[in-house]
Amino acid sequence: MLRKSTIEAQSALSTYCRNGIETELEGAKLDRLPHYRRLVYNVVVNALNTAYPITQKYVTEGWEDLQHRFFSSHYCQHPQIWRMPEELIAYVAENEAELIAKYPALIDLLRFEWQEVFLFMMPDLELPKHGDAAPNLGDKVVLEPEMQLLILTYPVHKTHPSKLIDAQPGQYASLAWRERETGKVQFMDISIFYALFLEVISSEELSVQQAGAKAALHLGLSNDESWSSNLQHFVNKLQEKRLIFKSE
Amino acid sequence: MNITEGAIGVGYRRAMTDALLDGTEIRPDFVELAPENWIDVGGTWKKRLNQVADKYPILCHGLSLSIGSPDELDYDFIAKLKAFLDEYDVPLYSEHLSYSKCDNAHLYDLLPIPFRQDAVDHIVNRIRIVQDMLARPLVLENVSYYTPVAAEMSEVDFVSAIVKESGCKLLLDVNNVYVNAFNHNYDPKAYIDGLPLDSVAYMHMAGHHKVQPDLIIDTHGAPIIDPVYELFEYATERTKPVPVLLERDFNLPEMAELNGELNRLRDIAASQWVNSSSSSHAS
Ligand SMILES: [Fe+2]
Q1: Residues in domain Putative DNA-binding (chain A) (predicted)?
Q2: CA angle centred on A205, ends A202 and A208, rounded to 5°
Q3: B105 and A18: CB-CB below 8 Å?
Q4: Which residue among B70, B105, B116 sits closest to A76, beta carbon to beta carbon?
Q5: Does residue A5 sit at the B interface (CB-CB below 8 Å)?
Q6: Which of A4, A131, A147, B273 has the fewest CB atoms below 10 angstroms from its CB?
């Protein structure tokens, strides 16, 4: 069993490394302690800057302060540092109302940037068995599992960070996937209707037509006949990029 | 995969991948990597890692085990670690005699443990749990530190007690001995003499930076300096042949320069450990 004073000493040093507030530490050379804070904090800041280069440009005032608040008050959970930056998203959503008011696209931008990091790095997922022919409206389909959808309030996926401050809220969707050949992450701006269609078809065993109808009904597009021919175009486009396949 | 005693390896950085696969400018006998940087990684880097693993034996040197932490061990993480070590047939897994998580927060860097008997007992207990879970010996490294914290015994007594009482193996980081001896005014050779040298299973060599007249920071960002080579010679005279790693994490030089350091280490190892054969990868 560790003695209380041992635990307290360990906690005091780690707390100091997290918040940088000078502290009494039994038997320590006080002039050496700032090196620990510097070394620890550099590692964290580098990881956050690497994961969020665009956010760093968007939050022109307060990015450094945000990093400091995050690391001092948040308890980083992931043992792998490359996964740690994801924790910033929930932290900001729960604790940073003032910053979000100033930078309304902040959460969307963090999610968008993290998605790219994660898709690039994530474990390989096997492509399910599928048929060879291009899917038609009446077919059931399987989707590329190394693909993710992001529903956004701000068009962070198609706006330069310097213009983002003027962006208007709305409903946007971005589709991202990791190319099997190159390992590169690619993006496609898609409509909310297509996003909804993808959500439906990945969660229910429906044909393209049935999933499209469900998405159209949800969005109040049922009377508009054009959605089904548009949907066939969209499916063709996904099929060309090898993101959707006819079921076996 | 077996690794020859006296083999000389290099710390794998992603920027080295092409040179390692090519193998003309730099030819280590093995590479060492941090499993935390590779567990659950797919895509491009998984493919690249597999190519490197096809060509070189892989040793692992962890970052997040936090063996000296007051917090509970992370059993999920250790299970993932074991799967990774098994997948890459890793013959040697080492970690740091330090802590990197406290109060349920990861710090992603190495903090010094109070040199105290209760910490020894605590760590000895945890080493046994980790060794059982991983089904392989744990090799623990003497870390560099810049200040003692709440110490009640010397560093060498602390390290020695843990190794002797737990039966774990020792990763002797020769540069860290040099750095600590400088920073804390002790004799590095006496420190080495005080360690249970029979337990040394692995050695690290690296460069460092002097940031103040009385302080060296262990940066792994510069070439190894001569006094550290001398200390390495001193250590190799007193240990059985073990794998030796060159750590270079920052300011990566030309690969030929790095290979020069590998060759110098190889020469020293070969002359000290006369009965050991150097690895086949080097020839
Ligand atoms: Fe080391």
Answers
A1: 9-92
A2: 75
A3: yes
A4: B105
A5: yes
A6: A4
With DSSP H G I counted as helix, E B as strand and the rest as coil, what are the percentages for chain A, rounded to 5? 55, 10, 35
Q: Do B106 and A27 touch (CB under 8 A)?
A: no
Q: What is the mean pLDDT of residues B91-111?
A: 98
Give me the pLDDT at residue B283, please.
33
Give the rounded percent of residues in chain B with a pLDDT score beyond 90.
92
- When pLDDT is cut at 50, 70 and 90, the band that residue A59 belongs to is very high
- CB–CB contacts below 8 A, A to B: 142
**Alpha-carbon radius of gyration of chain A:** 23
Residue showing tokens 């076996």: A248
This model of the complex carries an ipTM of 0.93
Query: Which pLDDT value is given to residue B107?
Result: 98
C-alpha A126 to ligand 1 mean position (Å): 37
Distance CA B180, CA B170 (A): 17
| Rounded Cα–Cα distance for residues A135 and A232 (Å) | 9
* Contact between residue B110 and residue B180 where contact means Cβ atoms under 8 Å apart: no
Q: What is the pTM of this model?
A: 0.94
**Interface contact flag, B150 A9, Cβ < 8 Å:** yes
Domains of chain A, residue spans: 1-103, 125-248
Query: What's the CA gap between A215 and A203, in Å, rounded?
Result: 12
Domains of chain B in sequence order: 8-275 (3.20.20.150)
Q: Would you state the pLDDT for residue A222? A: 75
A25 CB within 8 Å of a chain B CB: yes
Does the domain at A125-248 match CATH 1.10.287.130? Answer given as no
Q: A2 contacts in B (CB within 8 Å)?
A: 70, 118-119, 122
Flag if B105 and A33 touch (Cβ within 8 Å). no
Are B280 and B55 in contact by the 8 Å Cβ rule? The answer is no
pLDDT in tens, A18-56: 999 998 899 999 999 999 999 999 999 999 999 999 999
Does the pLDDT value for residue B24 go beyond 50? Answer: yes
| Residue given tokens 């262990």 in the structure block | B218
